[in-house]
Amino acid sequence: MSENKKTSLENIGEFGLIERITAKATTNRSSTIYGVGDDAAVLRKNDKEVTLISTDMLVEGVHFNLMYTPLKHLGYKSVVVNLSDICAMNGVPEQVTVSIAVSSRFPKEAIEELYEGVHKACDIYNVDLVGGDTTSSLSGLTISVTAVGSALKDNVTYRNNGSENELLVVTGDLGAAYMGLQVLEREKSVYKANPKIQPDLDGYDYLLERQLKPEARKDVVEFLKDLKIVPTTMIDISDGLASELFHLCTQSGVGAQVYDEKFPIDPKVSTTALDFNVDPATCVLNGGEDYELLFSIKQEDFDKMKGNPHMTVIGHFTSKDSGIYMIDKQGAAIQLKAQGWNHFQEGGGDEKDDQ
Amino acid sequence: MSENKKTSLENIGEFGLIERITAKATTNRSSTIYGVGDDAAVLRKNDKEVTLISTDMLVEGVHFNLMYTPLKHLGYKSVVVNLSDICAMNGVPEQVTVSIAVSSRFPKEAIEELYEGVHKACDIYNVDLVGGDTTSSLSGLTISVTAVGSALKDNVTYRNNGSENELLVVTGDLGAAYMGLQVLEREKSVYKANPKIQPDLDGYDYLLERQLKPEARKDVVEFLKDLKIVPTTMIDISDGLASELFHLCTQSGVGAQVYDEKFPIDPKVSTTALDFNVDPATCVLNGGEDYELLFSIKQEDFDKMKGNPHMTVIGHFTSKDSGIYMIDKQGAAIQLKAQGWNHFQEGGGDEKDDQ
Fold first, then answer.
1. Which of A29, A41, A60, B194 gives B130 a disulfide partner, CB atoms 3.0 to 4.6 angstroms apart?
2. How confident is the model at residue A201 (pLDDT cuts 50, 70, 90)?
3. What residues 5-64 of chain B have any CB closer than 8 A to a CB of chain A?
4. B34: three-class secondary structure by DSSP
5. Which residues fall within 8 angstroms of residue A9, CB to CB, at 6 or more apart?
6. Residues A14, B134: C-beta atoms closer than 8 Å
7. Distance of CA A138 to the CA centre of its chain
8. Beta strands B128-136 and B92-102: pairing type?
């Protein structure tokens, strides 16, 4: 390695780094159906089914702050964010492996508490913990989870299969996890300035739960199956709607228009955003960590899902040349940028470009 | 978590911690054939085959020291140690995911160098890199790899299927990786004491390569297939022969006798061990990181492998009550202890109890 012209990680950001690394990741084995570049890798299983594999790493001080993150919730969330990736492929999560590196600052009771959350997530999502690794670290806690799932071969939802005029749908509501983080960070600052002041978290239950204990939309995968809808594309919203929309558009070779008035936003998000002087739409576009699903459907499938309270149409794919725009309440078209978190710069958020 | 009676991790060691954690890891899904407790988890694939999943975490300062570990070798080794787990199940590795957490101290060129090693291992072992995660860390480098493989359902080699009188076989030679580490540590101490003295690594090529760039015995899996031998048990030697022998005996409910004069030891290991005042047999028993395979075969299979230069019979399983013994060159029976590395205490080694 040349010492002369080093490039710092801050200047590349994660997407650039991943692109460089995965440029060489050719797939040679016949059992690899799809490798790097989607929410999960897709592997040959049998005539009807495929195996899905997704992995994520959570690092103390980068993805979580133990000052306000209960270890049990952290264990739960570590599993859930990986199950969410399997759901985003329209698959059913079945197994996880959980590896941790911990410094001696953590007593065994802390690790047991973390694993209580892991087991809880496994119970709730009917997933088996089938392996992992435990090791020491010189400082801090790092958690790496790999999720394994399966899907019918013909029902897998990739990111690159979208077409013009298909409808864009999101599940649940967006922006709450981000506002939850803002509330926690505010109270942390207050506490740091004066440890005698108790944190004021009253009334923020929904936001805090969305941040600290998100859920994977396994139920949506089941709804879609019942409704006989196979989305043309799907991705989970871990980095904010804008970033995920960019992934779908770029990989499908299409543009998009979404309507800010259609964004599903909980009233508590709107009021808290106002307190923080943030536009609620910005929370939705750039916030992240909601772990809802963004997917596209053919127009003829719209009637099947109309009135479903879990799904909201927010726009549609356009031609590639039309770009990616949000239409605001005044009818102005605002060009979107892929503002996923660059946590090499900001030391926060949970950015993922692949499995 | 009670603050009163915390138990430090040093007092439990990894095996104790894993036992506590995995006690709750029940398997509920029909697709889980075998969960925690072997080299890899075994999942249902199709009528003939199973999917194997294994994962490992490598932490800077615990599993590797960048003062003497080239990043390319580190990337290579991170993949290989996981492929070794798939081989230990008598399977063929097919895919890996590689996740890294890096601090800003690493320029992008360093990460690219690490991935050069990852890609090299993938090329050599015909394995596809299908995913991963890249993230920042507050300090140091952590690598987490998950390997996926497949095996014929009837040919999977578990740890718990051994019986009295079966022969114990090891592949290759043992102790070299450990002696390689000793040489590197010695030169590091010399360099720290006086940075002007150049490290003297001449003549230690074999030991250093075994430590820094180990190989997985994928070839042995192929030999066994060609020889039509399905071992009754198999495990990879990551923590030293004694520790692995204990796993096989404990999980199979048998005892064992191994003969120190049978241990395959490279002459360079013997001479270097003498320089370091260590018994070569101790390197074999407690050294670890050779990533050779230890397996058991039925006596009637012995003729099939007789004369194969890659495999050495070192002893046999006995009854459980007979215990686990090494017979030394003088005929004395020495009771063995499972001295795998406890890296919560020692901050070194690479201990694994499960996938």
1. A41
2. confident
3. 6-10, 12, 14, 17-18, 20-22, 24-29, 31-32, 34-36, 40-41, 43, 45-47, 51, 53-57, 59-63
4. strand
5. A17, A344, B102, B104, B106, B107, B108, B111, B136
6. yes
7. 29
8. parallel
Tokens of B98: 């590689």
Predicted-complex ipTM score: 0.90
State the Cα–Cα distance between residues B339 and B351, nearest whole angstrom: 10
**Can you tell me the distance from the alpha carbon of A181 to that of A114, in angstroms, rounded to the nearest whole number?**
20
Stretch A239-243: mean pLDDT: 94
Q: What Å distances lie between residue B351 and A27, A131, B135, B200, CA to CA?
A: 31, 14, 25, 29
Find the distance separating the first CA and the last CA of chain B, reported in whole Å: 28
Q: Which residue has the tokens 């897998």?
A: A156
- Report pLDDT for B198: 81
- The 3-state secondary structure of A264-297, one letter per residue: CCCHHHHHHHHHCCCCHHHHHHHCCCCCEEEEEE
Q: Which two tokens stand for residue B145?
A: 């790899």
* Across B222-234, average pLDDT: 97
* Domains within chain A, CATH numbers bracketed: 47-155 (3.30.1330.10), 167-342 (3.90.650.10)
Distance CA A119, CA A132 (A): 13
Q: What is the pTM of this model?
A: 0.91
Q: How many CB pairs under 8 A join A and B?
A: 303
Please state the rounded mean pLDDT for residues B301-319. Answer: 95
Q: Which residue has the tokens 């889980």?
A: B32
pLDDT digits (tens, 9 = 90+) for A296-330: 999 999 999 998 999 999 999 999 999 999 999 99
Contacts of B113 in chain A (CB under 8 A): 1
pLDDT score of A301: 97
In this structure, the number of other CB atoms found within 10 A of the CB of residue A303 comes to 8
Tell me which chain B residues have a C-beta less than 8 angstroms from the C-beta of A31. 94-95, 150
- For A106, the 3-state DSSP assignment is coil
Least Cα separation, residue A130 to chain B (angstroms): 4
Q: Coil, helix or strand for A24? A: coil
Give the residue, B2 or A52, on which the prediction is more confident.
A52
Q: Check residue B151 and give its pLDDT.
A: 98
Query: Are B111 and A140 an interchain contact pair (Cβ–Cβ within 8 Å)?
Result: no
Q: Given this model, what pLDDT does residue B343 score?
A: 42
Tokens of residue B113, six digits: 């160098």
